[in-house]
Amino acid sequence: MKKTISIPFLINGEPMQIALEYAITQQNDLHIISCFVNGKHDKHRVQLHKFELRTQCEDGYYTALFDEDSFSRSPVTLDFMDKAYTEIMQREKMAIAVAAS
Fold this sequence. Notes:
single chain
């Protein structure tokens, strides 16, 4: 089922809300979050239209999985993807694993 979320994001120091549709599918302990940036201007701002985020659940905590395609993305796009991941995980009440220090 697709859901909609508004991602608060700064672009060139200007705060804005980026509309995002997402759906989560599960394959065992792997969750795939398929995302679609809604607004025409928003797509241009974050240089992104569709993307997937992958996360793995272990002991009730979720860890984002590395995506090799990220190497070709701009820093603004990567920041937006990180922010989208965090916002979606909070909304879905999926606890993010904290890295050991």
